[in-house]
Amino acid sequence: MVKLVAALVGTVALLAFAAATASAYRPGGCEVCLKAVETIQASCSAKELTDMNAIEAKTREFCASATGKDNRWCYFVGGTEDAATGLLREVSRPISLGLPKEKVCERLEKRDPQICDLKYDKPIDLNAIDVNTLRVRELKKVVNDLNLDCKGCAEKADFVKRINDYKKTLKPEL
């Protein structure tokens, strides 16, 4: 009977440890969250860093101009107008307590794991890619990422021509 109780206690302890490490902060993860929290902290004065309402106001200010993955992070924490959730207190409280950005993101991940699944897209290296081999969806993304005007582009050849024209205007790197 004693061995059975000891085995049961050991199993429960092992499961508790596994659950604790599964939701812990992952090094290299939470890339967008870390950058957003760092930007918010940097925009606050020393006095504002202790005031949760001021931090929430700075978060909304950050989210008002956020685009791409930063905007998606804002949506998840409730910093955008169309957000369905409201985790701004989960952002402002740890910051006001002086916790590092890693701990802030770790706490946010416990509330919503998809917050730490966000990653920035890798920058486009036009010299390394062959635009002729890309699909139309990828070509559209390249055009949008480079903010190129491609009105009237309907076929793959149009997108390839526009990107190649842009590549010709770039100065050759030494």
TrEMBL record:
The keyword Ribosomal protein does not apply. It comes from the Eukaryota. Residues 129-167 form the ARMET C-terminal domain. The keyword Cell cycle does not apply. It is found in: Secreted. Coiled coil: none annotated. Residues 1-24 form the signal peptide. One of its GO terms (cellular component) is extracellular region. Keywords: Disulfide bond, Secreted, Signal. InterPro entries: ARMET-like, ARMET_C, ARMET_N, SAP_dom_sf. Residues 30-124 form the ARMET N-terminal domain. Belongs to the ARMET family. This is Mesencephalic astrocyte-derived neurotrophic factor homolog. It comes from Capsaspora owczarzaki (strain ATCC 30864).
